[in-house]
Design brief:
The protein is mainly α. It is about 40% helix and about 10% strand. It is elongated, with a radius of gyration of 15 Å. Residues about 1-25 have low confidence and may be disordered.
């Protein structure tokens, strides 16, 4: 494991299953904003720089929380999490999933 690399894998794999006679294409995406907190916590505990490259990492959670809660698709949530991680300006920090 490369300790300088934070990879959050498979966090956005949630999906909804509708019961009854619903068709598969009628299924709605499940968007769980807790994924933002999981990504934030992962960076907080695993990021190589304890000073977070000068970023107030605690403030980043609050800054992006509402946007994560407002996301209506997994793609939107992924973009919010990716933008938050981008605040660290570390090319080796990414969200995969």
């Amino acid at each position: 494991m490369d300790l300088g690399r934070l990879t959050l894998v498979g966090l956005l794999l949630a999906s909804a299953t509708l019961s009854g006679s619903a068709r598969a294409d009628d299924a709605e995406e499940v968007v769980d904003p807790v994924i933002l907190e999981q990504a934030w916590q992962g960076a907080k505990t695993m990021f190589y720089d304890p000073q977070y490259r000068g970023v107030n990492w605690d403030a980043m959670l609050e800054r992006y929380r509402q946007r994560a809660e407002d996301a209506v698709t997994q793609r939107e949530l992924h973009d919010v999490v990716t933008e938050m991680l981008g605040e660290l300006k570390a090319s080796h920090t990414e969200l995969i999933g």
